[in-house]
Amino acid sequence: MTFFRPFLITLFVGCIFVLSINTIIDPLRFFSDISIAKYEPQTRYRYPGIIRNKDFDAVVVGTSMAQNFIKEDIDNLFQVDSLLLAIAGGSLREQSLMVQLALSTKKPKTIIWEIYDGALVNGVNEVRKGAGFPFYMYDEDLFNDIFYLFNFSNTVASIEAVGDFIIGRDIDNDDWKTMDFHSGKFKHGCPELMQSQLRKGGLLSEKKDLQIPATDIRLNIDRNLLSIVRGHPDIEFVVFSPPVSYAFQAMLKKRQPGKFAAMTLAKDYLYPQLLGLPNVSLHEYFSEHTMVKDLENYRDLMHFSAELSHELLVSIQQEKRKVLGNWHENLLKHNDELSNYPFERVLSDCLSYSP
């Protein structure tokens, strides 16, 4: 008994310390935006606090291909007060959770949703692997907040914030607007884009092709996208496919035909249903040749520059690539043309290019 008493006292004091410091410091700015903590670089952990504590009437969601937009561009073009909530490598499930949190918090009037085909062929419940996904930050259950307060990494972040405050280190309270903007961090065009592509894992491998059941694809789209759009007829949804480089698309079709077929099936299922909804405008850029065939626009085979991102927003706002009734014919034509594109030669020339 004499052994357990000091142990229990220590445990109790430790719990009070952890609870107190995480409540007061609020290291992820989850409860309020008044904190001495810097903004968390991991978007999945930062965005819930942003949604809860910032004013907005529009959100932008999607993958890292929607992270090069500038808030002021979106606000001016669409006459909104937006939050940029795109997630690098975000599955459709993660994007759906983000949208649902925004809807339950302040109900935006406009949702601009970048839909990369690769996210459509994820599993219906797929989220980030590794450190996991903080589901407790995306629901309305107050009891789940205990996972935020009694959290080792959050406690470390709180202690670091106190240390930064003591030594007088400045905190930029506006950097949340541009933290994920990646265009200025990389060079675009040849040969840099190929060097970047090779560093991040190289070209697509036939060994990593996927065979995805059509039922799984439809279930993912139904639960994580269509249910939200249909459930909120009073909200405007601006949905667009990003301008992934033509070379990447051609490589995907040849080297991973199973995944390419699944992505085509996903579009075949999704597009006609979105076109039938009055609160949706659908815009397509995977076949916009002036964008996707110019490798000078890219830092790797998927991610494009801030300049092209701006051009993309202007085009969407002006409805230059709005999907119409002949979309399926155009899709088949685009897929056929990809088969004849000499992507190996194009990429080889890009890698050896010397300005």
Keywords:
mainly alpha, 5-stranded parallel sheet, 15 helices, Rossmann fold, 355 residues
Short description:
This protein has 355 residues and is mainly α. Helices cover 48% and strands 6% of the residues.
What does this entry look like structurally?
The chain is mainly alpha-helical and 355 residues long. The chain has a single domain (30-40, 51-134, 172-351), classed as Rossmann fold, CATH 3.40.50. It contains 15 helices and five strands. A five-stranded parallel sheet has the order 2-1-3-4-5, with helices on both faces. Helix 1 packs across helix 7 (152-167) and helix 10 (246-255) packs across helix 11.
Please write out the topology:
Blueprint: H1 4-25, H2 43-53, E1 58-61, H3 71-78, E2 82-84, H4 92-105, E3 110-114, H5 117-120, H6 146-149, H7 152-167, H8 192-199, H9 214-231, E4 236-240, H10 246-255, H11 257-275, E5 280-283, H12 289-292, H13 306-317, H14 327-339, H15 343-351
Parallel strand pairs: 1-2, 1-3, 3-4, 4-5
Helix pairs in contact: 1-7, 2-4, 3-13, 4-9, 9-11, 10-11, 10-15
